[in-house]
Amino acid sequence: MATTAQSPLVTADGIPLKVSLARAQRRGKLKAIGLVVPLFLFILVAFFVPILDMLFRSVENQLVGQVMHRTAPMLHQWDDQSGELPDEAVFAALAEDFREAKEAKSSGKVGRRLNYEKPGFSGLFRKTARKINTVEPPYQQAFIDMDKKWGDIENWRVFKRESSAFTVSYYLAAMDMGYGETGDIVRNDDKRRIYLKLFWRTIWMSLLITAICLVLAYPISYLLSVLPVRKSNLLIILVLLPFWTSLLVRTTAWIALLQQEGVINDFLVWLGFVATDDRLAMIHNRTGTIVAMVHILLPFMVLPLFSVMKTIPPSYMRAAKSLGATPFTAFVRVYMPNTVSGIGAGAILVFILAIGYYITPALVGGQSGTLISNFIAFHMSSSLNWGLAAALGSILLVIVLVLYFLYDKLVGINNMKLG
Amino acid sequence: MSLPAYTTPLERTWHYTYLVICGLIFFFLIAPIVIIIPLSFNAVPFFTFTEKMLTFDPSGYSLKWYEDFFTNLNWQGAVENSFIIAIFSTLISTTLGTVAALGLSREDMPYKSVVMGILISPMIVPLIISAAGMYFFYTKIGLSSTHIGVILAHAALGTPFVVITVTATLVGFDHSLIRAAATLGSSPTNTFFKIIVPLILPGVISGALFAFITSFDEVVVVLFVGSYEQRTIPWQMFSGIREQISPTILAVATLLVIMSIMLLSSIELLRRRGERLRGITPH
């Protein structure tokens, strides 16, 4: 008896059960991983690497060091606080680099890159590249004679700083800061502060849109949750149809409604509330952005609220009333606390979507209604300052990820429901 | 929501006020979508109702914007591109997403929530950031301004929807069915096609519809990763609104509304079928 209890259990083919089980579990695990791997790799390559590339681009700064590959290492030896210009050897290297860059037609790019840091570099580099073949030693004097900007220590400080492989200057620019004359970090003067203001505007407009969505979504979600299923199924179509309708269709509809010669203004003129020559400006400004975005994001607030409200038994309210609460007290003290999880889920979802919105503000936002994403797009396609676009995008990404983390803690991503 | 007999006049008034408020909110939701339908039949190139339209004069209405849509090469190319890109990206995201969801819903999947978080991140990251990253990276590897680039980008954006809907369907899935099939001598492949696929099909189809509409509606990534050659319907609408605003856009919008009504009905039918099927499983 004692021997059978101690000898390990074996399967039919003589392998101990423990080993066999571990093997089967490992096989199951590998199978599960094997099923997930293809998508994981795909998302990694098609989505994650591009995002990482953007993050890298926001600090990457190899252009100047690569094109000016003789000057850059020598500049690292130069003490920019000494108050003296770099010596003749550096100028000689600069002349050499310029001759090479002119051949490769890359000096203009470096000029443009340095121009982001200090206006004037673009012109200086163009001029220098044009005249480089006439430059003779001694180089220091020749360069300064050609353009006295080469004799300005401040310019050399910028040159030295931006010839290192990594930079924080895009992040500084994205936060309305920059380097002062002596190379220390200072805030830009009032006129040049745009991005912080823009971030705040994006945040408070998103908050406002979220708040309006909540105020509008709460009553109809409640109605949907207390109506009999047959009726609520019909009414919820009114929420789902906008949800499924193309974003551009809805934006177009709001343009048709809100513009100066549009449906609402025509109606108000016809009613006599507004004079023909004094039509309301409701579009290409903040109002237009807010109205259109509330309409577009409202379903994202209704759906989570509705799914939470559906689970609250109506007997709670009846119990509160039978204990002497007025309908208002019963609603505020009993019903609303039960819906907090729905409010949180909907609000974070709407806020995350609003903060990164691009299309609607671009079409109906005008000047005062543009958000941070419009500036990211501007720097990507118009000003071509990709580093700044990447830095602005990275800051936005961090904000969204923090909110996403909150959402996960509050609702759990696995509980996310669609449609 | 009928009122009991003992309600006070104040409660009665509040009840009807509340219903009116709800009516107004529903009106706000649906009116902008409904109003573009009559506007798309406008005879003159305005975005508003003309007097002739309001008096129901037939000469105030016309089909010329629809004619423009069906004959204009810009729009026809956009329709073609939209369908090509949406169909191929849906195929990729549905296949990869369904297979991954099968793995994710297994008990023995390690690091489930981390992997899930990574897989659905394309849905969370704002489109402008995805577009920026893809623009930089796809330009580097030569995929920008190609159909393949846009298809891959859209497939990445569509997979989270497939993963979520299919895993949701699998929550109600009875795993003993697979073991039952195995004891009856069915091969894993046979079990997959004969047992698993029919049961999760509603989830797969609604995930595929989500992926399709994501691609079909998507404009930010197309604007950056694509070019005129890859123009889709939303691309064409976006540039149309920015440049010369013509009621053809309203005609397109009307057609898209009809399409979304059809999509919505099919999703609803699938959802109800899924609920019915799940109702009979022991969960």
Quick tags:
heterodimer, A: 419 residues, mainly alpha, 21 helices, 2 strands, B: 283 residues, 13 helices, 0% strand
Structure commentary:
The complex is a heterodimer of chains A (419) and B (283). Chain A has 21 helices and two strands. Chain A is mainly α. A two-stranded antiparallel ribbon of chain A has the order 1-2. The relative contact order of chain A is 0.08. The model of chain A has no long low-confidence stretch (mean pLDDT 87). With 283 residues, chain B is mostly helical. The two termini of chain B are 31 Å apart. Classes of the chains: A mainly alpha (419), B mainly alpha (283).
Mean pLDDT of chain B: 88
Say how many strands of chain A there are. 2
Total of helices of chain B: 13
Into which percentage range does the β-strand content of chain B fall?
under 5%
Average pLDDT of chain A, rounded to a whole number, is 87
How much helix, percentage-wise, in residues of chain A? Answer: 55-70%
Question: How would a textbook summarize the main sheet of chain A?
Answer: 2 strands, antiparallel
Structural class of chain A: mainly alpha
Strand tally of chain B: 0
Sheet having the most strands of chain B? none
User: Based on CA inertia axes, which overall geometry of chain A fits?
Assistant: flat
Q: How would you spell out the order of helices and strands of chain B?
A: HHHHHHHHHHHHH
Summarize the structure.
The complex is a heterodimer of chains A (419) and B (283). By secondary structure, chain A is mostly helical.
